[in-house]
Every structure is written in C-alpha cells, then in structure tokens.
Amino acid sequence: MFISGLVTSFNRAKEYGFMRQCDIQGGTLRTSGDDVFFHINNIDPLSLRYVNIGSVLHFEVIETDKGSKAINISSPLQSSQQKTNNILFS
C-alpha cells in the first residue's frame, strides 16, 4: 500500500534521507509517526529531481533488520515544483 511522506532530511552526496508519513487536513500538512529511511536507489528516476527537504513523495514501507525502509518512491507531481507552506511535526 502506498502512503505519502514528507522528506525531513536528504543528503544527495551520501544518497539517502528520511521521510515521515503525512496527510493534509484543512489545508495544513500534518506529519505523524517515526522517520523512515530511504536510499536514492529506491526512487523512480523521473522523480529524483523533486526530492528535497519538504517534498511530498509516495512510497511503500518494508521492515528490515535495521528498521523501516521506504521503497518504490515516486513524486505525485513530477511536472511541477512542490512547495509546502504549513508543516506541523507531531
């Protein structure tokens, strides 16, 4: 099952980052849960240029011996820049 997540950190040089599950309620983006690790090898190549801190991505989660990991990552809006104005971390 695909879920949406907000990129909370991303290091292009090291090719990994973290994101947190999110949803939009009343025009405000709300995050919940723990951060999930991701590696650029799991990002759709067409979506890679949209991966920045604050980007919203779609992904699936698997559990590994090191914790949760995002796979099958894609951008819901590859054709336009993503901007997040209201972010609430919980």
**Rounded mean pLDDT score:** 83
**Which structural class fits the helix and strand makeup?**
mainly beta
Termini separation: 22 Å
Largest sheet entry: 7 strands, mixed
What's the gyration radius in Å? 12 Å
Tell me, what's the shape? globular
Number of strands: 7
**Percent in strands:** over 45%
Low-confidence stretches: 79-86
**Tally of individual helices:** 0
Task: Estimate the helix proportion, in percent.
Answer: under 10%
Order of helices and strands: EEEEEEE
Question: Care to give the gist of this entry?
Answer:
The protein has strands at residues 3-11, 16-25, 28-31, 36-39, 56-64, 67-74, 87-88. It is an all-beta fold.
List keywords for this structure.
90 residues; globular; 0% helix; 7 strands; seven-stranded mixed beta sheet; mainly beta
Explain this structure to me?
This protein is an all-beta fold and 90 residues long. The chain is 0% helix and 51% strand. It contains no helices and seven strands. It has strands at 3-11, 16-25, 28-31, 36-39, 56-64, 67-74, 87-88. Strands 1, 2, 3, 4, 5, 6 and 7 form a seven-stranded mixed beta sheet that branches. A hairpin with a 4-residue loop joins strand 1 (3-11) and strand 2 (16-25). The protein is globular. The chain starts with a strand and ends with a strand. Mean pLDDT is 83; it is low at 79-86.
